[in-house]
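Action item from last week, closing it out:
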Amino acid sequence: MDLRNIAIIAHVDHGKTTLVDELLKQSGTYRANQAVAERAMDSNDLERERGITILAKATSVEWKGTRINIVDTPGHADFGGEVERILSMVDGVVLLVDAAEGPMPQTKFVTSKALALGLRPIVVLNKVDKPDAEPDRALDEVFDLFANLGADDDQLDFPHMYASGRSGWADNELNGPRKNLDALFKLIVDHVPKPKQQAHQHEDFRMLATTLGADPFVGRMLTGRIESGKIKPGATIQAISRVGQKIEQFRVSKILAFRGLGQTEIEEGVAGDIVSLAGMSKATVSDTLAALAVDEPLEAQPIDPPTITVTFGINDSPLAGRDGKKVQSRVIRERLMKEAESNVAIKVKDTPGGEAFEVSGRGELQMGVLIENMRREGFELSISRPQVIMREEDGKQVEPIEEVTIDVDDDYTGAVIEKITGPRKGDLVEMKPAGTGKTRIVAHVPSRGLIGYHGEFLTDTRGTGVLNRVFHGWAPHKGPIEGRRAGVLISMEDGEAVAYALWNLEERGKMFVVPQDKIYQGMIIGEHSRDNDLEVNPLKGKKLTNVRASGTDEAVRLTPITKMSLEQAIAYINDDELVEVTPNVVRLRKRHLDPHERKRASRQG
């Protein structure tokens, strides 16, 4: 069968997964009466809840005698480790761009990787039926983006289409018939080359492992594109590491290929096709699976280094072990090592003492997703404030810089620019009108300056601003950056919070706890209205007497509390604070202080 391998690239929420839904429907992948979930490719619970693609996933459709393998790539730069490997499996990319927003930072990040591999993109201007769509402007911006990323003449001569993924149509002209996606299928078949690997079917078997998975019945599985030769179940092959070390020999127990949304067992895998192999026990991502006669590994794509590190420790608070079942450091270490094995963008390092682990990754969102998955699995953890990874170049310390693109109402541009260029040490690169009373701001800001900024940004823009960030490069260290200005309210007692005490403390700042919440010494229960920390007693009840007077027995009315999400809590804390994460609760607390430090903190309060 004729074969094409493509990846779909898009910024978060530009309609990529919805378009794949329509491609699956219109190719006849589903039965006429089959019940199918919306955004079928977002199979992970967190992906559905957040509306983002986290894991790269493959599917395949058949159209007029041609099988098209489609890889759905993550749209957020924090999950870029997935993207860098996935692009080595395909021969073409479909770049999906929102006709109103134009190309955004995440689009730029993934497209630069695709262009560097020599892939020729197809540009699809999506959501052209929206009232604020400007497809011509978006097309010009895509051309400028390609030129800035160093695209060659062939890549700049890209075909483009107008589409509405939700409505299920794509046309070569803006005012086309708007019926179906046939024009897009035809363009993919005509424009994307056949896998050149198909010419190497009579050579020794070789395949580069790009994603790692596990099946409860089959066990460990590695997915990749077969570079040369053929493979059948029962064949004995070997795994070779990136540096040429032979890891293991194993017998292939099953070969699975993508057919629609599922995987089907096949009798033979041939060069050019994307398949999953089972039977190995040690081989992992970036290893070469090859016939026994092969000595050299395939070249694996280099992975961009991590930019932040977070310390994962055991939960040693007085309330440890009440919610979760997995609390020992040994169990936490096993889970983190398993994650690092399948996700090459994450690195795990033991700390002295073995009670905590330094986990390095791409950004706060990637760490937040890992922690959220672990708490749902029953883990209890204590998490430190993210630290940016510095490095030395020519004897000087350099730090990661991120390109931040902000779309904000004109009224709030002053507040945003002041925060970014002032205390956060950013440099303004571009500022231009974005239509309908909005301004687009582009700035280069140190990664350190962006930790904890998102919540402040939403407050400054009254929730109307949109902030996107992507790794830009390294620059000389910009000096100290001020952290959170406000101090915190720290509990000095153990027990359950009392409404009367919280009501009296409201003049001191805003609360993070409600009555009957379990409290312990050193736990952070609120934000102080001043810049120092203050120890308070949230358990102090009202002294009752038998004398009654008018107005003294009014009901206590508490201000609704600030409920933080996991990512907000991690971004909020200072270096001397921790986030306690359990399956049911997220708490903030101070690191354990010795009695002298506690007295000093109390006196300062």
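Closing note: DSSP finds 15 helices and 36 strands in the chain.
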